[in-house]
Amino acid sequence: MLPLPDTAFDWFDLDWFSYATLRSFEWINPLYLYLLPLVPFCFFLRWLLTLRFRKKLDVAFFEGKAQWHWSSILRYIPDVIFTVFTMLVMVALARPQRTNEVIEQLSEGIDIMLVLDTSGSMELKDFKPNRLEAAKGVALRFIQGRFQDRIGVIVFAGDAYSLAPLTTDYDLLRETIKSIHFKMIPNDGTAIGSALGVAVNRMRESTAKSKVCILISDGENTGGNIEPAVAAKLAQAYNIRIYTIGVGEDGQVPYDTNEKGEVTYVNTRLDETNLREIAQVANGQFFRATTANTLQQIFNKINLLEKSEIKELRFRNTKDYYDMYLKWAVVFLLLWLFLKNTFLTNALED
């Protein structure tokens, strides 16, 4: 397909007649294209009528019959040229066009901070393959559905660290989340308050219309130097809404396998009270996820609650190309006029 013509002689290119180029056009008057086969048919009909009804003058110059020679075919060249000229005019009358549509998407982005627990209890296998990997998978799918929202990542165990600042570089975020693993924070424990403190510090100067923190944890606060309730009040002061997600089942949960290949279990119980209080203080919601499917549904719900409005601006630029074929038609018309004054034209037949 040819690009937009830039110079005065871009029309002089045989690619204008290629199938790909012709197919790329929108035809405003396609009826003329359907009439194209009538053009050579009319010339053929004219030839038949001339052959049948033309007057013949018998002139005897010599005895015997005149032999046919291939050069006699040359007298049909002007008619072929005029046929092509007529068909090019028909193509131009069909008005080939191309429309380029540019879509710009605008959004008042939301700032979202993902706060993920990497403590030892996230190794429990009531989620497949474990709680941490299930949470990472859901977080990756959550990022895939965002548009122009800045997202950051914080991990915590006994201490809390910011892995990625608020950014729209979703490729970087995906690589960051995939790199999260156990024991990346040497001090084990569950420093929920410290993690929320880091999140508030990262988001307090944000000017986004909505600021959201999503906390994923399976335990009660056992580390750090900030109480979760205090961190929640700080978040509320900076208009940061906190969604807390408690992951894991209560009771006997598979943890690992022993030397004999037998599954070992540990007794666990989620402290919902603390997570509920954090969400309530920070104007968010608490969710409980006992399966990977439930965790995905929770993220889907948060995705709907915190969906930024996307506006689309469409710009349409329509370009006519009939002049390309008119210029070719003029070339064939001039060629036909030239041939009419050469030996190729039979004056007696005209």
UniProtKB/TrEMBL annotation:
Q: Which UniProt keywords apply?
A: Cell membrane, Membrane, Transmembrane, Transmembrane helix
The record lists the membrane-crossing segments as 31-53, 73-94
Q: Name one Pfam family in it.
A: VWA
Record-linked Gene3D superfamilies: von Willebrand factor, type A domain
CDD domains (UniProt xref): vWA_BatA_type
VWFA domain location, by residue?
111-302
Q: SUPFAM superfamilies, per this entry?
A: vWA-like
Does the keyword section mention RNA-binding?
no
Q: Which PANTHER family match?
A: LEUCINE ZIPPER PROTEIN 4 (PTHR22550:SF5), SPORE GERMINATION PROTEIN (PTHR22550)
Q: From the Swiss-Prot or TrEMBL record, give the protein name.
A: VWFA domain-containing protein
Q: Which organism is it from?
A: Adhaeribacter pallidiroseus
